[in-house]
Write a structure and sequence with these properties.
This protein has no helices and 11 strands. It has about 120 residues and is mainly β.
Length: about 120
């Protein structure tokens, strides 16, 4: 129904910045809550940030509050994650995801469509 493709990952030094993008196609982008998750080798997938359908509400994991900003551009069908003050612990594959749920947006279980991920590596 909707397809997601992440981009923007790469190698960056600690303290640096990256902006991830998630391009969506298929069903109207504005009908979905969107989230970012990440997974490092040997670790479970964890929630990073999410934004509601309307963009009025955003939620962040405690580990990224004050450093990351989630946003969406509905005319471009694109989701963004601006990542500043990156730390080595941020190293992971980052996935974007789409959900038709309207209330719960900060848990992976409600997301039905996932991208393939983009690698972010932060070196000290």
């Amino acid at each position: 129904q909707v397809q997601l493709v992440e981009s923007g990952g790469g190698l960056v030094q600690a303290g640096g910045s990256l902006r991830l993008s998630c391009a969506a196609s298929g069903r109207t982008f504005s009908s979905y809550a969107m989230g970012w998750f990440r997974q490092a080798p040997g670790k479970e997938r964890e929630f990073v940030a999410a934004i509601s359908w309307s963009g009025e509400r955003s939620v962040y994991a405690d580990s990224v509050k004050g450093r990351f900003t989630i946003s969406r551009d509905d005319p471009k069908n694109t989701l963004y994650l601006q990542m500043n003050s990156l730390k080595p612990d941020d190293t992971a594959v980052y996935f974007c995801a789409a959900s038709t749920h309207s209330i719960i947006i900060d848990t992976a279980a409600v997301y039905h469509t996932w991208g393939q991920g983009t690698q972010v590596t932060v070196r000290s």
